[in-house]
Amino acid sequence: MRDIESLRLNQTQKLRFEKALEQLDFLSAAANSNACVAVADTILVDHQDGLLKGHGTTDFDGELVATVCGVVERVNKLVYVRTLRARYKPETGDIIVGRVIEVAPKRWRLEINFTQDAVLMLSSITTGEDIQRRQTADDELNMRSIFVENDVVCAEVRGVQHDGSLHLQARSQKYGKLERGQLLTVPPYLVKRRKQHYHYLEQLGIDLILGCNGFIWVGEHIDTKDDMVEDQVAKSEQQNENPGDNFSKETYTSVEIRQNICRAANAVRVLCALGFNITADVIIETVKLSNSVDIHEMLGPEFYVLVAESEVERRRSSKRI
Amino acid sequence: MEFVSPEGLRLDGRRPMEMRQLRAKIGAVDKAHGSAYFEMGNTKVIAAVYGPREVQNRSQQLNDQALVRCEYTMANFSTGDRRRKPKGDRRSTEISLVIRQTMEACIMTHLMPRSQIDIFVQVLQADGGTRSACINAATLALADAGIPMHDLVTSCSAGYLNSTPLLDLNYVEDSAGGPDVTVGILPKSTKVTLLQMDSKLPMDIFENVMQLATEGCKAVANYIREVLLEKTKERQKFHGV
């Protein structure tokens, strides 16, 4: 996104920012002093015991050589280079956010920041219906009523097929089309795989989905009922309500919510530009920090410095414990 | 014309074996997956890498390796006389091809089957040695994009004027019509991936000139490596553990 150098920091801000950087330097120095490698650097290893060459390494004249820029990681015998800023590498079970780029026979193609487009089969999604059944030709014709081109969709990685294509699935109510919000793209290394990728920020009334592929969705909160305990009676009652009233409710987002969405989105933008890890907690903290400034000022130099300082504070306190 | 003065200085004040000042910056194009800006003296180029991504033209898709594409353009304002050049002229098509082949030699294309990598290089200011500068910029941009490579390809030119081998020719020396050798190497294994020469040179002198250019390539490689390492360290620092 934005470059830090393009920010017009004034003299005091520059000093404060440099001080924050120094402290970051100091805090990270102990953990890994010289684990960083560039392309074609030799990685120092003991050749005595068995060695497993992992991703981002290759053998050259009996030496282990890095093929990408990143950080050397060692797990028992395995040595690999963890890349910073590379394209997303999918793993089965990842929760991702993608954009539909094509409606093809029985499938949608999604852009998910991978080397290829991902495939979402019609048969691997649950439609709103109650009963499970085979997908018919009619369903295939009605595919555009579910997702069309440029829709933002949330799904789960199902796995890589034999032909090398990546398949997705969306077999729950929580997956599916995302509406009324913003999609942000950040480098995938900033989002860590966790148990929870869906977050409902109650105090802001917004949903936050941190896709493992670096696509982050910030949108209005939508109540998703667990499809296992769906109440049939309640559903039929809902349908009897005035349809016109329902329509206006569904398309209108209050100004307050919209402002909150913008705040959260700007928080993500700032964190991404500074290259800090992005988690729900950090985003909430950044939004809290922004309460003293206007939404548009969040992208100004002063707020960048504030965020950097608070990150230093956060890391320091986590270190003490 | 005298290209090397009796004191042993060239037209721009360099010694015969001296390179121009190098400057590099990673991350020049926001939307690209990897990008870099590279300067060799007054030659300034910008490179952007997109991909690996889905192949745009299905018929070109390769099932065992990635497709590498390259486009070289010169900005209208890059040369002394502002001239509108057609996009697909022969010179730029040839240089596109050269850069593509050089980069293909170092990218581990077999790791990214059924995908495509696009490299766009643009010359912002031309002062001789544009193809070397473009290759260096493209290497940096590819490394920034996190694309696995065997080695960092670097390139440098050398010439032979006034019976002196000269390193890293500028525009005036380049247009003198003397021999101009452009070399691209993989510095780790010292393998040559690119070798081009205009006009003729005797065998023994050629070896000297090429040796000089190879030394230049190694100097560029050291610099590029430093820049990459610094950027990686910075990113890691911000990212934390």
TrEMBL record, chain A:
Subcellular location: Nucleus
UniProt keyword annotation of Mitochondrion present: no
Location (main, coarse): nucleus
Key words of the record: Exosome, Nucleus, RNA-binding, rRNA processing
BP-aspect Gene Ontology terms: CUT catabolic process; exonucleolytic trimming to generate mature 3'-end of 5.8S rRNA from tricistronic rRNA transcript (SSU-rRNA, 5.8S rRNA, LSU-rRNA); nuclear polyadenylation-dependent rRNA catabolic process; poly(A)-dependent snoRNA 3'-end processing; TRAMP-dependent tRNA surveillance pathway; U4 snRNA 3'-end processing
Listed GO MF terms: RNA binding
One Pfam family here: S1_RRP4
GO cellular component: cytoplasmic exosome (RNase complex); nuclear exosome (RNase complex)
Domain S1 motif: 91-171
SUPFAM superfamilies (UniProt xref): Eukaryotic type KH-domain (KH-domain type I) (SSF54791), Nucleic acid-binding proteins (SSF50249), Ribosomal L27 protein-like (SSF110324)
Homology family: Belongs to the RRP4 family.
PANTHER family assigned: EXOSOME COMPLEX COMPONENT RRP4 (PTHR21321:SF4), PNAS-3 RELATED (PTHR21321)
UniProt-recorded name of the protein: S1 motif domain-containing protein
UniProtKB/TrEMBL annotation, chain B:
The keyword Cytoplasm belongs to this UniProt entry's keyword annotation: yes
Subcellular location: Cytoplasm; Nucleus, Nucleolus
Main location: cytoplasm
Segments forming domain Exoribonuclease phosphorolytic: 18-148, 151-216
Family: Belongs to the RNase PH family.
Single Gene Ontology MF annotation: RNA binding
The keyword Cytoplasm belongs to this UniProt entry's keyword annotation: yes
One of the record's GO cellular component terms: nuclear exosome (RNase complex)
Protein's recorded name: Uncharacterized protein
Keywords of this entry: Cytoplasm, Exosome
Top-rank taxon, per record: Eukaryota
InterPro entries, alphabetized: ExoRNase_PH_dom1, ExoRNase_PH_dom2, ExoRNase_PH_dom2_sf, PNPase/RNase_PH_dom_sf, Ribosomal_Su5_D2-typ_SF, RNase_PH
Any one of the GO BP annotations: poly(A)-dependent snoRNA 3'-end processing
